[in-house]
Amino acid sequence: MKKIEHIGIAVKQLSTAIPLFEKLLHTTCYKIEKVESEDVNTAFFNQNDTKIELLESTNTDGIIARYIEKRG
Fold first, then answer.
1. pTM greater than 0.85
2. Burial of 61 (0-12, 13-18, 19+ CB in 10 A)
3. DSSP codes joined into one string, the chain
4. End-to-end alpha-carbon separation of the chain, Å?
């Protein structure tokens, strides 16, 4: 069986999503970073051997913002 390295989840706002995921996963966010080349801010959580990455758009026309607009 293959291992999942990480899961990316698009969110509208990290400020709202981080406390929610900390509660759901029973762990704290271990890293937040801005990735200017991709117009996103990211927050990372460890869940066993899998990383969970939250992605927030820094641009209203960015790929994450468009994804959330289209799919909710």
1. yes
2. exposed
3. -PPP-EEEEEES-HHHHHHHHHHHHTS---EEEEEGGGTEEEEEEEETTEEEEEEEESSTTSHHHHHHHHH-
4. 32
Unique residue bearing structure tokens 């758009």:
57
Residue 29's pLDDT is: 98
Residue 20 has a CB neighbour count (10 Å cut-off) of 11
- Give me the residue label for tokens 């706002």: 13
Count CA within 13 A, CB hemisphere, residue 42. Answer: 17
Q: Letter for the amino acid at 24?
A: L
Looking at residue 1, what is its pLDDT? 73
CA 53/CA 11 separation, integer angstroms: 10
